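One record is kept unedited as follows:
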Amino acid sequence: MQKKVLITGGSGLLAINWALSIRDNYAVTLLLHHKKISLSGVDTDVASLDSLDECLSVLVKHQPDIVVHTAGLTNIEECESNPDLAQEVNVDLAKNIAIACSDQGIKLVHISTDHLFSGDQELVTEESVTNPVNIYGETKLLGEQQVLENCKDALIVRTNFFCWGAKYRQSFSDFILNKLKNNKQSNLFSDVYFTPILVDELVKRSHQLIDSNAMGIFNIAGSERMSKYEFGIKLAKHFNFDSGLINKISINDKSSLVKRPKDMSLSNTKLCQALNCEIASFDEQLQTLKKQKNKDADNQVVLDIIPYGRHYIDENDIQSVVNVLRHGMLTQG
């Protein structure tokens, strides 16, 4: 029997691509909130997770073997302008999910971030001292702490992923590729560094950790530290676009942005040692991304739109039309 995986934040890019990656091997349910979508081979459910009782109710209903908690408020500017909402989504929700999973004996994978540090150190490890510089980072760190306190065998994943986006939400790589495709210039930071990883590689390593009953914090990241500008250049060259359309700029020139760490690169040494593996190279991951183009989220996710108004047609109406077609003349002449 297939194991059941319940993914919160079901309309988000990570949740959708996670589901696409595992749907052939797991019974997957995407848990939706405001945005309603459907995805072939994946179940969906609409539920509120605003309280512990609601979290418990959802778990009792679905009886998953694994919960992947991707739901979160990730917009840095919005977190800064609405700290109460950031606290509610990134901290309180994480706590409730952790308590509920612990109560039900369900494996929890909590998705965290690489924004937890001051940004003055390369390739930070899981043991590096955290020092977030904005409310997004602060609340994600508090969320981690709540998960660790309330669900002892939870797996916490720190990462920064890339993937194909959906019609209603672009990924970072989508943003760059769409600009290039339309022969438009884009400005990317040459002094902001990260270790990006393709969602498929992230999911593969996450499930290997789950299968080995790993717990605690793991950096699941690429092995190559690069700037956002370098990421864009590599993307352009791999997809045969004009890399000259990508301009190098400094984050120092964007004074209107909420403060961000300049270096978010994560060391994946602990991960590779635990799994005795090597993460696929960035070029290999780009090759996979390119192969996925015709099977990406944009082509598979269907938005379930509730119309303003539509006709009500029942079986009697249909039968009446059939009767007209079968009896009498439809036209004169």
User: Anything to note?
Assistant: Residues 4-169+195-226+263-303 form a domain with the Rossmann fold fold (CATH 3.40.50.720).
